[in-house]
Design goal:
100 residues; elongated
Length: 100
């Protein structure tokens, strides 16, 4: 067996593992757009290592929005004396367009 054949088996195995990990996660955390529930696992098949990184970096943004909404609702206050800094875009209209 040549080194290229071994490398191809390794890439296929990593792709299949990524497919399963992403598919299980997509089932637990459905995407806002239905088609992405299909696209993300397939991305894991053909894009070893980078595919799973992209999914957790880009595909799970809805989780971050939910956590931030929960976080901001816990810290409602009347004054800003002891206000800790949030990292928001300086241009809220661009941020709102991006989140929708």
């Amino acid at each position: 067996m040549s080194w290229l054949e071994i490398l191809s088996y390794i890439a296929i195995t990593i792709g299949l593992i990524q497919f399963l990990v992403i598919a299980i996660d997509v089932i637990r955390h459905l995407q806002m757009m239905f088609v992405m529930n299909i696209v993300w696992p397939i991305t894991g098949l053909y894009f070893p290592v980078a595919g799973i990184w992209f999914y957790f970096k880009l595909g799970r943004k809805d989780r971050k929005k939910q956590n931030h909404a929960h976080h901001s609702s816990e810290h409602m206050h009347d004054n800003h004396e002891d206000h800790h800094e949030h990292h928001h875009s300086e241009n809220p209209s661009l941020a709102e367009e991006y989140l929708q």
